[in-house]
């Protein structure tokens, strides 16, 4: 019996969006958003008719969301480190220049 391709549309879309969310996680907004939409599409497909692509899309979407969240956390942490270094004047450049001037 042949399956109707129109019943697997959400699974294919969920897989593609999940794959894109993993590949584009370093775009700290786009990756997680693609992962969320891919997760929704994969869940819809699993409820209608569970396919291998819908399960793969679900897994890839979850991985993409997690990677995107880690990227956002890393960017916030990096931004805070840079901001506190600039505000305290401890980038290390000035002190290195002063030490070189003392030696030379």
What does this 3D model show about the protein?
This protein is mainly alpha-helical. It has one domain. Helices cover 79% and strands 0% of the residues. It contains four helices and no strands. It has helices at residues 9-23, 30-48, 52-88, 93-103. Helix 1 (9-23) packs parallel to helix 3 (52-88) and helix 2 (30-48) packs antiparallel against helix 3 (52-88). It is rod-shaped. It starts with 8 loop residues before the first helix and ends with a helix. The relative contact order is 0.15.
Q: Any chance you could write out the topology, listing elements then pairs?
A:
Layout: H1 9-23, H2 30-48, H3 52-88, H4 93-103
Concise summary:
This protein is mainly α and 104 residues long. It contains four helices and no strands.
Spatial extent as radius of gyration:
23 Å
Helix content: over 70%
Helix/strand class: mainly alpha
User: In total, how many beta strands?
Assistant: 0
Low-confidence stretches: none
- Count the DSSP helices: 4
- Which word captures the global form? rod-shaped
Mean pLDDT: 85
Tell me what portion of residues adopts beta-strand conformation. Answer: under 5%
SSE arrangement, N to C: HHHH
Distance between the first and last residues' Cα: 85 Å
User: How many domains would you count in the coordinates?
Assistant: 1
Largest sheet: none
Keywords:
104 residues; mainly alpha; 4 helices; 79% helix; rod-shaped
